[in-house]
TrEMBL record:
Organism: Bacteroides thetaiotaomicron
Protein's recorded name: Glycoside hydrolase family 97 protein
Domain Glycosyl-hydrolase 97 catalytic: 299-451
Span of the signal peptide: 1-19
Quaternary assembly: Monomer.
Record key words, sorted: Calcium, Glycosidase, Hydrolase, Signal
Length: 643
């Protein structure tokens, strides 16, 4: 009888296995990933019994023929751990709790799924013989509800700095052959749930893009491996010949995680930590030298302080002035952007008017580190500059204009991060793709641009920027370069160097320092303006760039956002809105019940809807039992600190 029962159980298991139906459920039991293996590999994701989205034709093509999965075995596991990131942008500790399923397939291939309470992720794993393998394609057709609306950036090609404005497109309006989309992509299912698609643990592999799929959803798309490039300037190349594969990589490896945040509330998008949870964490033994912080930046306002007794420009007196200003405001870094070097192609010779060694030494005397801007092409041709800059005493580098997302360029990011870490240099990537986990493996990578930020003038509107915390900033640090002191409503906007301006109110600009996340947070404007607007500057320079705790107090996608963040025993709150304005009322029940707090509050002035520079400051004592009532005008905001 025992032998018969054993045979029946084995037969039943084999039938289930080869029938190809599996599932993995989140720790709280609400989210389920149902898998099917037949002629292809597919999944469907449910929350509270409701189907949210699915995928068909999921595959990793290691040969030039369709992917045909054959299941071999299944392994299940659960993990409940705490991650402590070196650079905590949201939380000093991150809970990583999930149930996992690994489906081993024929051909030294597997696919892993993780089910979290707030989303899911999957990735392929290979265990091939030999050192290298070619990946011809990775496929996935994601099907979405017909009524869904997509919030996405749409580049015209794979060469992109990820600075396109957001488009808001009904899924049924996207047609095969339309512009494709970057990650991250936000989907409003119109079923009370939003889905944020992105990736993490990206290495030795191209970035994923998405293209329209016959009005049913979106499909995975990847740039092919570049075989030949042609320089088109001192900082840019075009790919002129591609391989027929997307990657040549290790035969035994894990591939990037594809993840989907499942947000029941808009606030869930802002608070999510998926990129961190899925990234390879650092193995660096010493990270004590990695100091995130604010940066005074001279490019946006064309190095033009005034009320000074010297001729301004890219000269010794001007840069010492910036260092003095940073030191007086306790800003830890000054960025020397394009123009500090005699040539963009020579990273070792500065302008004759600059004594770099003297400036770096002067900065150190005043507790200010120097960051240097470089085109990526120059770095690639002079990779020993990291070693040389360490000798100089440079604190870090801003590397610009990569504008590509293929495997070669992804590997370039890691080579830079690794070499910079070896020589104790911090890194800020501009002209870049979005964060995808490298910043956790190499926490000296403190920020990425990859965003339509304040450099874009009148195109950088609160109506567009309000989406960043829900989409772009939701996947990692973002160098938006805030801090404009000349604020305007859009119909009055004028953009002239050296007195640059921004769209939105003064209080809105101040709030961005609390709302937006970046390990390097710029003060983009003229030091003279900051000195004239001292009470606003004192607030801005008091805002940390890393946090112990983050709470979303109010959120509505595209309309408004109010964020509270704690550092030690201080709380900062920032609120922003777009074209409609918003009266907000939020409780302060997150405060310590045994303390009173001094609240310094900056709000839009009565006339800020017309004259965006208008703001009001007030100081009062509050407690946990009270509520904060604020009126934000159109394109407005508010900012407060509670001590």
């Amino acid at each position: 009888m025992r032998k018969l029962m054993g045979f029946l159980l084995l037969a039943c298991w084999q039938v289930c296995l080869y029938a190809g139906n599996y599932e993995v459920v989140s720790p709280d039991g609400k989210l389920k990933v149902a898998l099917t293996v037949s002629d292809g590999l597919g999944m469907e994701v449910f929350y509270d019994g409701q189907s949210l989205f699915g995928a068909l034709n999921m595959g990793l093509c290691l040969q030039q023929q369709p992917f045909k999965p054959v299941a071999r075995s299944v392994k299940r596991s659960s993990v409940n751990e705490i991650i402590t990131p070196v650079v905590p942008l949201k939380f000093v500790s991150v809970a990583n709790h999930y149930n996992a399923l690994r489906l081993n397939l024929k051909g030294n291939l597997a696919i892993e799924f993780r089910a979290y309470d707030d989303g899911m992720a999957y990735r392929f794993v290979t265990n091939g013989d030999g050192k290298k393998t070619l990946v011809y394609n990775e496929t996935a057709d994601f099907y979405l509800p017909e009524e869904a609306v997509l919030h996405l950036q749409q580049p015209v090609g794979f060469k992109t700095p990820y600075e396109e404005p957001y488009s808001h497109v009904a899924m049924k309006e996207r047609k095969d052959g339309s512009k494709f989309a970057l990650l991250p992509l936000l989907v409003d299912t119109k079923k009370g749930v939003k889905l944020l698609f992105s990736e993490s643990d990206l290495y030795d592999y191209p970035c994923m893009f998405l293209k329209a799929n016959e009005g049913k959803g979106v499909s995975a798309l990847f740039p092919r491996y570049p075989l030949e490039t042609k320089p088109i300037s001192d900082r840019s190349v075009n790919v002129v010949r591609e391989a027929d594969y997307i990657a040549e990589t290790q035969a035994k490896r894990t591939f990037p995680w594809r993840y989907v945040v499942v947000a029941r509330e808009d606030s869930d998008l802002v608070e999510n930590t998926f990129t961190c949870r899925l990234a390879t964490q650092t193995t660096m033994e010493d990270t004590s030298w990695i100091r995130p912080g604010q940066v005074i930046w001279e490019w946006w306002h064309h190095t033009s302080p005034y009320h000074v007794d010297f001729v301004v420009g890219r000269n010794q007196e001007t840069y010492k002035y910036y260092i003095d200003f940073a030191s007086s405001c306790r800003i830890p870094y000054v960025l020397f952007d394009e123009g500090w070097a005699k040539s963009t192609t020579n990273p070792y010779e500065s302008l004759e008017a600059l004594d770099m060694h003297d400036l770096i030494a002067y900065g150190k005397e005043n507790n200010v580190g120097i960051l240097l801007w470089l085109p990526w092409t120059t770095v690639e041709k002079n990779f020993d500059l990291f070693k040389e800059y360490e000798k100089w005493g440079v604190a870090g580098v801003k590397i610009d204009f990569m504008d590509h997302s293929d495997q070669w360029m992804v590997n370039y990011y890691e080579r830079v991060a690794q070499e910079a870490a070896k020589h104790h240099l911090l890194v800020n990537f501009h002209g870049s793709f979005k964060p995808a986990g490298l910043e956790y493996k190499y926490p000296n990578v403190l920020s990425y641009e990859g965003v339509l930020g304040m450099e874009q003038g009148e195109f950088c509107t609160p109506a567009n920027s309000l989406y960043h915390p829900f989409i772009r900033n939701a996947v990692g640090p973002m160098d938006y370069t805030p801090g404009a002191m000349l604020s305007m409503q859009p119909e009055y906007f004028v953009h002239h160097y050296p007195n640059n301006t921004s769209v939105g109110t003064r209080a809105y600009q101040m709030a961005l320092y609390v709302v937006f996340e970046s390990g390097f947070q710029m003060l983009a404007d003229n030091p003279t303006f900051y000195l004239k607007e001292k009470e606003c500057t004192n607030f801005i320079t008091s805002v940390p760039v890393t946090w112990d705790e983050t709470k979303i107090l109010a959120a509505s996608l595209g309309e408004y956002l109010v964020v509270a963040k704690r550092k030690g025993d201080q709380w900062f709150i920032g609120g922003i809105t777009a074209e409609k304005g918003k009266e907000i009322e939020v409780g302060l029940d997150f405060l310590n019940p045994n303390r009173l707090y001094e609240m310094t509050l900056f709000t839009d002035g009565l006339n800020a809807g017309l004259q965006a520079l208008d703001y009001k400051k007030e100081v009062k004592t509050v407690s946990k039992a009270e509520t904060l009532k604020v009126k934000m005008v159109r394109n407005g905001g508010f900012a407060t600190v509670l001590k």
